[in-house]
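Ticket reopened. Same input as before:
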Amino acid sequence: MKRILVIDDAATVRLYHREILEKAGFVVAEAINGLEALEKLEEAPFDLYLVDINMPKLDGYGFLRALRQLDVPQAPAIMISTESSASDRQTALVAGANLYILKPIKPEQLLLHVHGLLGEWHQP
Amino acid sequence: MALKKGKPTPTLDIPGERQQARDLDGLVQALQADDPLMRRWAARDLTPHPEAAAALVAQLRRETENSVLQVILTSLTAIGDDTAVQGLIDCLYLEDAMLRNAAIEVLKELPDQVAPFMDRLLQDPDPDVRIFAVDVLESLRHPRVEDWLIEVISQDPHVNVCATAVDLLGEVGSDQAKAALASLKQRFADEPYIQFAADLALKRIEAE
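Engineering reply: fixed in the latest deploy. New output:
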């Protein structure tokens, strides 16, 4: 089963994503900020990351930049944000996101994106 | 930074430290020194000088060294006057997510000082700024937090501002939030996340 790491400081958001993804058969782990997410990487690799932008300690951009520098199996990342400006999208993609989508996201949209990215992902 | 073995233990007399006058003018000047170490010392030593808040805020906006940035934020927290708070609030409008988040974390520590600004922040025309204002409320120990959140979910037209507020109401909401949560569900009837978060908040309130 594919493993997904949900990184968001809002507990309700994590739970919302967890329920959608678990119902679809994914194994879900959670992290409350970028730093905790980096620690989780030491436990086991993930197949996909769902990343919020604004989080204390280490934000989503910082997490992605760090992730992409690490010598770990890489995986696609979806940045999910409330911020709609073109510069946020650009920053996210440059930092290492594969997709940038806006909150609030409907369950079917989330699963469409997740399946799409997992289907087309090839380890570089 | 880790020290290499075999090097002498450094003393507190660090090169670059306190080479300029330690009066207000000297410290403000040192705050713009090329050497980050000098800037860090200056930022620290300006803590007892509320009149330096504007200079600290200005440096906060241009500082590139994270360790200096942290000291500036600590000094601004300690000063905590209107200039310092306004300077931190201005960071909510920046593109720099790291600085924005750092400002949010500091503002959370200044409940009484932030409170007079909160009504205006929650009415800001930019929904992102209103979301950051709700983020500040997250651990702001202030008696009006629940009232502000209820006001947001009752009036704010933007779904993500309401979504951020409802997340928080799930943690701090009481019986008085129930009617507003029910109205929110009606207002955003086609948004599954709002339904989920409002139901969760209502369940938590009922359980208490």
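The CA atoms of residues 8 and 128 of chain B lie 50 Å apart. Chain B has two domains: 19-109, 111-208. Please confirm and we'll close it.
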